[in-house]
């Protein structure tokens, strides 16, 4: 299984509009961070997309993605959602409905917020199209099949929101978390690769891990490799990498990592 980080930034992205800081003017391409998204790919051609940020079309073009089999939504903040219409190309080209996996509460909000997509009575004018998407609600801690793979939804708190990370195989994927509840920690036991959000060094944030908190969570999980995402312009990629302990890495847009799968049936 391969994991490609399509977007590793926070809601402002990097560079931030109008900012004169060193990170926003960095010549290091790893300091350019679009909003959060990732792609899981298997050797049989299966592709699962995680979130649909505003830059989704550009991310997919940069990564050379020509099809997606399913989408996993972590939650419905705009930086994770508002590229949803860019999914239209997949349902239009492949003439099939694309399944979207998210929490039951999020599914209800999606139906209201994007009624032009999910209301079957809304028919696009002849010669035009709309995304053909099917909502498949998730329940925390209840394993489900996503594009033929077993995904375990892992609930984490994000202010007043519940975010659904997941475990698939030996990968644990958590974004926009402020803590890892006991049930989620239990679901992460034995992962070899962990993804965690981490904003910056220093001052705590009310709804996100900072770097120190992410490192403590990573140590508690004990994965062989941990990748930090959801990074702000307050951290330079090269400086962060030098400061991180062994086995912890700063992800960047376009980075692809391989997770070995259990060969047993």
- The helix content is 10-25%
Widest sheet: strand ordering: 6-5-4-3-2-1-14
Span between termini: 15 Å
Radius of gyration: 18 Å
TL;DR of this structure?
The chain has about 260 residues and is an alpha/beta fold. The protein has helices at about 55-65, 80, 90-95, 105-115, 115-120, 180-185, 210-220, 235-245, and strands spanning about 1-5, 35-40, 45-50, 70, 100-105, 135-140, 145, 150-160, 160-170, 170-175, 195, 225-230, 250, 255-260.
List keywords for this structure.
seven-stranded mixed beta sheet, 265 residues, 26% strand, 14 strands, 8 helices, alpha/beta
Provide a descriptive summary of the structure in words.
- It is a single chain.
- The chain has helices at 56-63, 78-81, 88-94, 104-113, 115-118, 182-187, 211-221, 237-243, and strands at 2-7, 37-41, 47-50, 70-72, 98-103, 133-138, 144-146, 149-158, 161-168, 171-173, 193-197, 225-229, 248-250, 256-258.
- The chain has 265 residues and is of the alpha/beta class.
- It is globular, with a radius of gyration of 18 Å.
- The mean pLDDT is 96.
Question: How are the SSEs placed, and which strands pair?
Answer:
Blueprint: E1 2-7, E2 37-41, E3 47-50, H1 56-63, E4 70-72, H2 78-81, H3 88-94, E5 98-103, H4 104-113, H5 115-118, E6 133-138, E7 144-146, E8 149-158, E9 161-168, E10 171-173, H6 182-187, E11 193-197, H7 211-221, E12 225-229, H8 237-243, E13 248-250, E14 256-258
Parallel strand pairs: 3-4, 4-5, 5-6, 10-11, 11-12, 12-13
Antiparallel strand pairs: 1-2, 1-14, 2-3, 7-8, 8-9, 9-10
């Amino acid at each position: 299984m391969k994991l490609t980080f399509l977007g590793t930034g926070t809601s402002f992205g990097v560079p931030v509009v109008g900012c004169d800081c060193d990170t926003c003017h960095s010549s290091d391409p790893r300091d350019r961070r679009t909003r959060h998204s990732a792609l899981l790919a298997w050797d049989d051609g299966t592709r699962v997309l995680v979130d649909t940020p505003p830059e989704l079309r550009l991310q997919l073009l940069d990564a050379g993605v020509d099809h997606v089999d399913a989408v996993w939504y972590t939650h419905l903040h705009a930086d994770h959602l508002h590229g949803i219409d860019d999914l239209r190309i997949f349902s239009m080209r492949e003439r099939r409905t694309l399944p979207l996996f998210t929490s039951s509460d999020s599914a209800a909000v999606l139906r209201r917020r994007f009624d032009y997509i999910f209301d079957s009575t809304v028919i696009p004018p002849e010669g035009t199209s709309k995304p053909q998407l099917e909502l498949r609600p998730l329940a925390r801690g209840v394993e489900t099949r996503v594009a033929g793979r077993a995904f375990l939804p892992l609930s984490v708190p994000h202010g007043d929101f519940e975010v659904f990370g997941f475990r698939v195989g030996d990968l644990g994927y958590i974004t926009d978390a402020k803590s890892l509840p006991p049930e989620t920690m239990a679901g992460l036991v034995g992962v070899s690769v962990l993804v965690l959000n981490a904003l910056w060094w220093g001052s705590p944030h009310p709804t996100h891990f900072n770097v120190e908190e992410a490192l403590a969570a990573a140590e508690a999980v004990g994965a062989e490799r941990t990748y930090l995402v959801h990074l702000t312009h307050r951290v330079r990629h090269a400086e962060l990498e030098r400061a991180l302990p062994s086995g912890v890495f700063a992800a960047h847009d376009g980075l692809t990592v391989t997770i070995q799968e259990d060969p047993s049936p």
